[in-house]
Please model this.
Amino acid sequence: QKEVEQNSGPLSVPEGAIASLNCTYSDRGSQSFFWYRQYSGKSPELIMFIYSNGDKEDGRFTAQLNKASQYVSLLIRDSQPSDSATYLCAVRGSSASKIIFGSGTRLSIRP
Amino acid sequence: DVKVTQSSRYLVKRTGEKVFLECVQDMDHENMFWYRQDPGLGLRLIYFSYDVKMKEKGDIPEGYSVSREKKERFSLILESASTNQTSMYLCASSPQAGRHGDYGYTFGSGTRLTVV
Model:
């Protein structure tokens, strides 16, 4: 079992709709959770982080964390073509050392 | 904003050459990392460092070495470049977890290395 799992996609969502990206992790003691966006040919950039159970909102983005079920999700409201990218879920485990990255979900927003 | 600067955006080297990839960060971060990213394989950790002159192997260290003589600089060395090392190389840095909260890693813009 991979430490951080994501569906590779592609996930195709119409413009203006809500895009929902999901991620599960194996280390029950994980402490911090991150979502990175990566445009083709570019490096990952941090868009959200969450530490506690529940929802965290930032503009059109909402991160959701459920530690009991060991999943974290990212919702993008009012999806725009500029949201088309690969989204990487990343988790800092209980050892608090390295961050483990998922392999990413490719999101495509269709006009 | 933290800046992580990688010296080259694109690099073409010949098989057998010794290749140096440089990474400099300007925010006094303790931790620095080198990844390579290939289609379908995601980010793979090559080496990392938690302090000056300290280094630890990641998941795929074979064929690579690193140097961290100064806190702000972390160099990746390909001892004898091979075609299977053609890839996107990404440097990242972060403060010690918990020192100022946990904001994950900041990545450089990447170096696309082609070995011919």
